[in-house]
Amino acid sequence: MQEFSPLDGAILIDKPAGPTSHDVVDAIRRKFGIKKVGHCGTLDPNATGLLIIVLGRGTKLSEKLMGDDKVYEGTIKFGETTNSYDCDGEILETKLVPPLTLEQLNEEAAKFIGDLMQTPPMVSAIKVKGVPLYKLARKGIEVVREPRLVHIYNCRFTNYEPPLGQFKVACTKGTYVRSIAHELGQKLGCGAHLAALRRSVSGKFDVANATRLDDVLKLTTAELEKKVIPFLKLAGGGGS
To answer: Would 9-67+203-234 and 70-201 be classified into the same CATH topology?
Structure first.
């Protein structure tokens, strides 16, 4: 039977706002001197929450883990449209927000449930002819993007204090939550963008069991090993 090292597997990181997912990978690789490190599903720099980091031979399972369903919680700001559909972008338009109730917002949010064809935002990491869309967007270049099929299991608002609405969405991989925020704003006629986003669940893993990035970077290698989810458990081949 193939022998695995204590660092062949994955760790659950609670990513702070600021660094990119790749920044987190680099920080862990440098700190612990692990050659193979990857992540299972990009979080935008301003997004926080669960980031699954695969280590060593655990990187072989990155595609499997990336394909799992996700749950996000966040805040949508109504009345402002941005070019990136989130708070990182430039404000393109400001409009008055009509009187809205939590019930009205949930009626509109429910319309997103089910199969959905989503067009990726121009400010995204998807590549066209090898070039990330966000690099083209910075040059003022807009290209045709192919819509992608995603599935929304649930989408609802939990609180609304104008102009901010707190929401929760469960969806398949590759879903752009900021696109939902943008489209909702368009439907309501006032515009909107994603003000904050936190990933709480990915597959069977919950952010409640994750460790803050700063705390992980203070660990010794021996302490890190205790937090690693072993390869065989990730692969569904046993383990507790």
So the answer is: yes
